[in-house]
Amino acid sequence: MKELTGTGRLFRLALRRDRIVATAWILGLWLFAYSQAAAIIALYPTQADLDQLARTAQGVGANPAVVAIQGPAYDASTYGGATAWQLVTPWVFLIGLMSLFLVTRHTRQEEESGRAELVSAGAVGRYAWLAGGLLFVVAVNAALAAITALTFIAVGLPATGSVALVLACVLNGLVFAGVAAITVQVTQYARPANGMAFAVLGVAFLLRAIGDSAAELSWLSWLSPIGWAERFRPFAGEQWWVLLLPLALLLVLLVAVAALLVRRDQGAGVLPVRPGPATAAPGLRSPLALAWRLQRGTLLGWTIGVAIAGLSFGAIAQDMVQAASEDPETAEMFSRLGGSGSIADIFLAAILSWIGMLAAAYAVQAVLRLRSEESEHRAEPVLSTSVPRIGWAGSHLLIAAAGSASLLVTGGLVAGVAHGLRAGDLGGELPRVLGGALVQLPAVWVVAGIAAALFGLLPRLVVGGAWAALGVVLSISIIGELLRLDQWVLDLSPFTHLPRVPAAEVTATPLAWLVVLAVVLAAAGLAGFRRRDLSSA
Amino acid sequence: MTATAIAVSGLVKTFGPTRALDGLDLTVNTGEVHGFLGPNGAGKTTTLRILLGLLRADAGSVRLLDGDPWRDAVALHRRLAYVPGEVNLWPNLSGGEVIDLLGRLRGGLDPHRRADLLERFQLDPRKKGRTYSKGNRQKVALVAALASDVELLVLDEPTSGLDPLMETVFQECMEEERKAGRTVLLSSHILAEAEKLCDRLTIIREGRAVETGTLADMRHLTRTLVHADLERPAAGLDKLPGVHDLEVNGADGTRVSAQVDTAELGGFLRRLTDFGVRDLVSQPPTLEELFLRHYEAAPEGDGQAAREEARR
Known about the structure:
The complex is a heterodimer.
Chain A: H1 7-17, H2 19-43, H3 47-61, H4 64-70, H5 79-106, H6 108-113, H7 115-120, H8 128-154, H9 159-186, H10 190-213, H11 225-231, H12 244-261, H13 287-326, H14 328-336, H15 343-375, H16 379-383, H17 389-423, H18 426-438, H19 441-457, H20 462-479, H21 487-490, H22 508-531
Helix pairs in contact in A: 1-2, 1-8, 2-5, 2-8, 3-14, 4-10, 5-8, 5-9, 5-10, 5-11, 8-9, 9-10, 9-11, 9-12, 13-14, 13-15, 13-17, 15-17, 15-19, 15-20, 17-18, 17-19, 17-22, 19-20, 19-22
Chain B: E1 4-15, E2 18-29, E3 33-37, H1 44-51, E4 59-64, H2 73-77, E5 80-83, H3 95-106, H4 111-120, H5 134-146, E6 152-156, H6 164-179, E7 183-188, H7 191-197, E8 200-205, E9 208-214, H8 215-220, E10 223-230, E11 243-249, E12 255-261, H9 265-273, E13 277-283, H10 287-296, H11 303-311
Parallel strand pairs in B: 3-7, 3-8, 5-6, 6-7
Antiparallel strand pairs in B: 1-2, 1-4, 8-9, 10-12, 10-13, 11-12
Helix pairs in contact in B: 3-5, 10-11
């Protein structure tokens, strides 16, 4: 087929271009999978330990906050089943992330940069870029699947289950390569193409997060490729027919792509580019107005995500009371989460702390905007006008601080209304839930403060350092108590110091200290930025 | 307002082990268009960033519009406009929005001049930042700077992305700026541009100013290329002072070309007339030749690279 002429060469070009990027992705995802299996085997040496784990899994399985992130446990009484419980959901998400980024990188980004034009002028078919890019992503996934399956077999997991697990994860992850193949046709630029594909991935994750954690909504998980990988039940009685779902969806996506591709010009998207205004709105005249303009889209996206999370978890809080009254294991698990209120309150406190962590992730992203503005030479023209450095950096910090507060208000309001309506006491429940959300704010600000301090003092390390700090804080908060870490480790996370409202009373002292700490960190960052050179490297 | 807009002396800036500026001196008089010339990596952009208070000087003194560019950055920035060498726009803001924003952040811009410049540079202000080519991004920054009511323009290689037509428009704009009495500091490695635009020049190499003055001052230091067609074969020209690269061509040795030190030109021409001059062409030195002279003297064998740079 002459429209595919050159696919092989472009595939090899992609291999050559990305030999480091692809290797890093494969090694990272392989390490993630291997460490889950290795940790299970090391932590639970005997069958008795595994049986204990399986009971915990059933108990923890009732905690939607954990299930939402980790997925359901089908059979944690074998090494394979326990590994699948730990691995499948986040791994498919990450494989999907890798696949969509790589597809965009080798298709739309090549067109956007103009490199594709140089190549397409040669004997290269219309579908060759896309086919070469997809082939490359399939090859990367195949390599990941192969080494991961071999590793699982080498550490002693059953061969059939190992192959089945990686196959299910990789096939469902590849669906998002298909999604990205669509989005790169739709828009003219790589960033929005990535954004749209990532939004689909996020929706897929969220659909199954709700479906997995609320029994009456479990059908939602069947709408998500990540849910399909879970329901394939690797190591727990594989449902082979489920693999037909990602294959069929991929086929549909590819047919759609082929139809879209011939309807557009090289370098253009299916959607036309809309022109912007010829003059700036009267309000766009301060660094704060600019920061708001640059950050409002991101904040809107996070607000929608937080509202959906608040709605879905607020709506099921009342069901937890029912679940706990029927199952002593669940009740036991809730009591270990801490706090002294009702089951619904303990559940709500856990959910609100999860929303607090979302707000912290947003705040880190918002603060890091400072660094990308600086390193991509967009700070320079602004700072060579009469805008003081503190004014410029402070604007973005203000957006991060106020934006994270507004996320907490949104999450608290939506969860409070949903829970209040179901509990039949809107006036009583709403303020308590909203309070529980707002109590997260000092901890969120501390995380943002760490990012701000790094930006001012160690700008070259700020991106990696800020995300790493967030990762440590989240890991401690999510799994710290389950792993029974020492108290001093738990204390490293600002979230540990928050009162578990509404399951506990508000205590002002730790909140005040956290606010002071956040202010000191931000001030250190601003002072450092005022003294240092602007740097792009 | 004093007579000196920019006074830099002994300026040093290091980045780790690299000494980007190594005792740079630069003086820009108020109201002049000053060319700041040097190859890539000579330290031009670093100097401009220090003048804008974006980088901090390690040693030396820097005065800009009678202020300290680091301490008084905000006050000084109201009185100047800057066009960076690498203009990067916000992907989702239109060019018109960026022009207005930068103008307002500087303290206002003239709407008539803005409209006039958009027209002359043929710039569509409705396009989004990510859809502009390099040249158009540069035009956005240029329009924002030129439409601002400021005393000093700092331009870092402003024409590097412009096509020849737009370069002409830019040259007209510079002429207007000169007439309006604005001070311009213009960095460039395009020598013909500086020759056309600038009242005075500073040439910088490896972080140090190697030459400064008007083009006429520099010609004094340089050689004029002379081609002559003579009636009789010339003799003894090579014994004259200040004559270099003498070539005698033609079947009978009547076609002569040589590089002559400008100070010795009179003696050389008097001698030529002894042999009967049929035709004479003399070319003033170009800045390319100024560059060549400076880089030929480069000690660390980087002369070749610098020469190639100068020819571009």
